[in-house]
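Notes to self after the Tuesday call (sharing in case useful).
The group wants a holo model before anyone commits to mutagenesis around the pocket. I volunteered. Ligand is S-adenosylmethionine. Logging inputs and output together so the record is complete.
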Amino acid sequence: MLYIVGLGLGDERDITVRGLDAVRSCSKIYMEAYTSLLSLGLDPAALANLEKLYGKEITVADREMVEERVDQVLSEAADTDVAFLVVGDPFGATTHTDLVVRAKKMGVEVKVIHNASVMNAIGVCGLQLYRYGETISIPFFTDEWRPDSFYEKIQNNRQLGLHTLCLLDIRVKEPTWESLARGKKVYEPPRFMTVNTAISQLFEVEEARGGYAYRRETLCIGVARLGSDDQKIVAGPMEKLLDVDFGPPLHCLIIVGETHPLEEEMLEFYMIK
Ligand SMILES: C[S@@+](CC[C@H](N)C(=O)[O-])C[C@H]1O[C@@H](n2cnc3c(N)ncnc32)[C@H](O)[C@@H]1O
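Result:
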């Protein structure tokens, strides 16, 4: 059996009771290591805390490993119980549908144990979840690569009066271009996009596109470390959020659409002074 277990957004104790029972019953535990800090091994204390609470050794599985060795994980799951841990919910934003499809094709039974995701915990900002449009991802711009296809999506959402959740790039274990050309991979240091970088990139795109999807005064909400004890949520005009220090990752950003009076009342609590 393959258990795909959501860990939630806070710390190791956010696992559900059902998730913990499943993990403790498994003989092998993998953890997805490309969409969150906790699982990145960048915080060794967090990993040690997980292992201590779960009473199991955890193999951190980076994107390369999941892509290249998934069949090995699935063969193990055909013979014994294996848990694959995902920070947040297994189907929140980074879907693990491909893993489920492959498992099912190999005849491996799958059980999913859900948890909170950035996609629903964001409700704490006060904007109603059913008034969001398409979620977008903002990638880091480089000198050669400045993809901005998210712009049309923001524009569509805003034309419909809907809010836009922007997920911000995480670059972990990315090989440098030069090392790929040389045929021997050397990895870039890990990077996480801040709310500030996301806003500067959005301004750059807006300027290049002629400017009508959003403006410097558009109301936005910057969110950092959602679900943890030190989460930070600040609402205000986009240009003012540029100067706010949101602290350590992970960050995301909301471009606010048309608001309902109750949404506005809640937003007041987060408004920049
Ligand atoms: C691809 S999603 C991962 C989704 C995860 N499986 C879940 O269900 O929450 C990763 C992006 O979501 C956002 N994110 C995830 N966790 C967050 C948190 N605790 N606080 C703020 N943003 C977060 C960041 O922008 C990050 O780059």
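Two things stood out.
The pocket of S-adenosylmethionine is lined by residues 9, 35-36, 86-89, 92-94, 117-119, 167-168, 170, 223-227, 250-252 (CB under 6 Å).
The two ends are 52 Å apart (CA to CA).
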